[in-house]
Design a protein that fits this description.
Distance between the termini: 40 Å
Order of helices and strands: HHEEHHHHHHHHHHHH
Mean pLDDT: 85
Helix content: 55-70%
Strand content: under 5%
Structural class: mainly alpha
Largest sheet: 2 strands, antiparallel
Oligomer: single chain
Shape: flat
CATH architecture of the largest domain: Orthogonal Bundle
Number of helices: 14
């Protein structure tokens, strides 16, 4: 390899890394500003032109924010919101993962009349805007006396887990050799044993991706809690954090809101950091194969 070729390759690599560094800096800048302003005083956070660094780090903002929302019978609303969110996360993740893989197993491993048509109908539901079903669903949940409870946010995800998740799991299961199922049937295994002992363990990567997506979806969901949860003690963390801007005068201003948003942003970042390998590999495999 000549020196000129090596030089061109080094220049190309340096250019690529420079572009990646600039892109990463652009995407990380909002996170930097979120953290920086959470450590400012109220005056510093509103000056023009804007300051990028606080004069003195106001770490007490992160302590004071927990006193800002008040209590209910001695229990902080933060704790109530966290408990509601934790219940939702566990139930929704379990429902999404289990129901989506079960439905996908039926589409990929069980032959029945009209299977392709039913699958096309399920995929077609992705084209329906959520705003179209919002009023009918609200009416149904109202008739069931589920308003101001967590039921409207939990049980729909146990009914298939969503068309997108079904599609991802179907695409992944299509990459698994059918000979595994046939061998298990020869050994006398029924569909339930095949599903739980063969398919489910093999589908761990895609189910991890589906679980991460379900976690982020619940964690960031504001519309549905705002629609179905009426009293403050039933709110989720997303809904509670979104109302802080109404009380900025009481809790000290913008830095407290930014401190709450910083804390609220950490769990999804940490989760994706540890699960990104499974998430990226399974989504790529599901999207390009089958």
């Amino acid at each position: 390899m000549t020196s000129s070729v090596k030089r061109r390759r080094r220049i190309f690599a340096a250019t690529v890394y420079a572009i990646l560094i600039v892109g990463a800096a652009i995407f990380c800048f909002p996170i930097f500003m979120l953290l920086s302003r959470s450590l400012m005083t109220t005056v510093e956070s509103t000056v023009v032109p804007a300051k990028f660094f606080p004069s003195v780090l106001q770490w007490h903002n992160y302590v004071d924010i927990f006193k800002a929302v008040g209590t209910l019978e001695g229990t902080s609303y933060w704790w109530l919101w966290f408990k509601n969110t934790a219940v939702l996360e566990v139930m929704v993740i379990a429902g999404t993962v289990l129901s989506s893989v079960w439905v996908a197993y039926g589409f990929t491993r069980i032959k029945f009349p009209g299977r392709n048509f039913v699958f096309a109908v399920v995929m077609g539901t992705m084209m329906i805007p959520s705003t179209v079903t919002m009023i009918p669903l609200y009416t149904i949940f109202s008739d069931l006396n589920w308003l101001n409870t967590l039921h409207p946010l939990i049980w729909p995800m146990w009914c298939g887990g969503g068309a997108v998740n079904i599609f991802l799991v179907v695409q992944f299961l299509r990459t698994l050799p059918r000979e595994l199922n046939e061998s298990a049937r020869i050994d006398g295994a029924n569909e339930f044993k095949i599903f739980f002992r063969i398919v489910l363990p093999a589908a761990v990567p895609i189910l991890t991706a589906v679980g991460v997506g379900a976690f982020v979806g619940v964690w960031n969901d504001l519309v549905n809690p705002l629609l179905y949860l009426n009293t403050k003690d039933m709110w989720t963390l997303a809904l509670g954090v979104s109302t802080l801007n109404v009380n900025v005068g009481e809790i000290g201003g913008i830095p407290y809101v930014f401190a709450a948003c910083t804390i609220f942003s950490l769990p999804p970042i940490v989760l994706f950091t540890f699960a990104q390998k499974y998430f990226i590999e399974s989504v790529v495999m599901s999207g390009i194969k089958g």
